[in-house]
Sequence to fold (303 residues):
Amino acid sequence: MPETVIKITDLSKSYGKFEAVKGISFEIFRGEIFSILGHNGAGKTTTLEIIEGQRTRTSGTVQVLGMDPETKRAEISQRVGILPQDFNFLELINCGEAVDFYIKSLNAKDSVDGILERVDLLDKKRSLIKNLSGGEKHKLGLGLALVNDPEILFLDEPTTGLDPVARRSVWKVIERLKGSGKSIILTTHYLEEAQKLADRVCIMDRGMITITATPDEIIHKYGKGSVLRLSFSDPDMKAFLKLGMKHRRSGDFIEIDISTMDEFFSIIDRFKEIRISPENLTLTRDTLEDIFIDLMGADGNES
Fold:
């Protein structure tokens, strides 16, 4: 069995009559990336802040590395790293000075060069923070969260506002951190990011957990399957239609629903038998984002 590093049981948080978190339970295991998803107001940030010890709970239990963050926050803080969504730092010092400040403040053993190298910023050691790109600033934030060599990393919207290239650059750093055995709790509005990085995702809605599973399990259970999209020359189209294969037309394309890869290869084999060859062929399946929108609605209302 994997080792549990965070265990949440019947966690609730109320503000007067408003229940922000409603009796949720889940576990996070050592060495995994666990992503918490949900629309604004779903309870993600409140849950994260309770786990981090920044906010008290109304009821339930929380264990982080076997300790309660309400009573052992100081001990826990020595073993976790936090990158908040609104990370910022003094912009008139350079990257090396920022990391050195954190190392000395935390009495950490790592070196400035070691931290910067882990987040691909060693060549920016003497660059002023104000001159960094958005992606480089996010990677610096990750580096500062790593100064105490944490066992658990809390990453709150770590790529918000970044262009696709910068976002993927940060993803590479996060994947390496996971490879080093760290447990990572990731909140993100980018469903592609969760599908790419997370071992498991937890979807929250109105303070409750609706699903906890791997991205593939969610796609398999709630997705509509794969779609084979094809186009043919006129002679091959006539030959295809003679097959009597169930399909639908979409402009100049043919679309065929596919349940399994065996079904896909069977179709390709039939094309070979009658010597037709598609001019275009794509096989697509639902993404985590497609399913999230189907389940939750684009505006946070369940469909």
